[in-house]
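Quick one, T. Sequence first:
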Amino acid sequence: MADVNRNKWQSDVQVTTSLPPSLEGPVHALLRCEVSQVVWLTRHTAPSSVLVRLLWWGESGDGSLFRPQLRILSQPFQARKGCKTQAVYSVRCSLEKFAAYVRDMQALTLEVLDCKDMSLLGQAQITDLQALVEKTHQ
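Structure tokens:
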């Protein structure tokens, strides 16, 4: 989390909510989420590109869509253009209340989607986000 000087961080992912969702008020902090790459480990044929959807607990709508690099371990890495890897969210409550929000949320789920048809390829969960907030606040 960062101070409220938004010029320090660039967001290339469209963000449609602040945190916690639906809460109005002044911005107390910024939270930057980065999804820079998805590593394809399975033997199944990899898609040509993927999206990663991040939907916060209580957020309505489709969430934020990241377009990270797709790295297939069985092939030489080739950087792709057009990636969108960073989202910056406004935190509209105190850090103590935000820590309570992420504790109540328990886990943040990231969905990996095929760009062609938006079919679900897999999911990842981030747990213990409260610890990140507490370390930042110390």
